[in-house]
Amino acid sequence: ASIAKAVREGRTVYDNLKKAILFLLPINGGESLSIIAAVMAGMTLPITPLQILWINMVSSIALALSLAFEPGEENAMKRKPRQRDEKMLSGFLVWRISFVSLLFVVGVYGMFLWTQSQGASIEQSRTYAVNTLVVMEVFYLFNVRCLNSASWSIKRWFTSSVVFISIGMVILLQLIFTYAPFMNTLFESTPIGLRHGTEIIAVGIVMYLILELEKWLRRFMSNHHNVEETLS
Prior knowledge:
Layout: H1 2-41, H2 49-66, H3 91-117, H4 122-144, H5 154-157, H6 161-179, H7 181-187, H8 194-231
Helix pairs in contact: 1-2, 1-3, 1-4, 2-4, 2-6, 3-4, 3-8, 4-6, 4-8, 6-7
């Protein structure tokens, strides 16, 4: 029993480490690709370096740390042992990091360009882009808490109170970033209206649904492959 418990704890630690990598790298990748795309196209930066520093120091770190307190997944002891020489950045992780990075670029840069086309100022569009990135981080956190299984189970959502504490802190700090006059001066941000706030949340929900669909397709293909192997 002690050995089995130790194995389960070891798998939980290993899974949580992968979750943290899967959470942080796509966010940084999305930020970097957004800046690179703007520079190569000779366009205005959607997010300033100071705003990126705010995102990385406040929201990204706070949300990523909550993953260290995630309980083990239900199927942790049903998986086959991994190879001792298995690389941390497996093909699955590389694909997920690339795919999620692309979604972040589309969401952030798309929001910036769309609000610019609607006549928003540079400061307003950048504020929308920053808040879109943070909202996408929050929804992505719920998705990455389950590497392979569906994450929309209400029971699964409430397995860790640390996640909601972290999200609450991030929301509070982001409200200060958006609406506090001294933060508006420091970070060149502007207040956001209810309509645009709803649109930003909608972007996060769409990204979450896309990632859940991708996860379901991977499970379906894996089960189909296993059935074919069994029949053969």
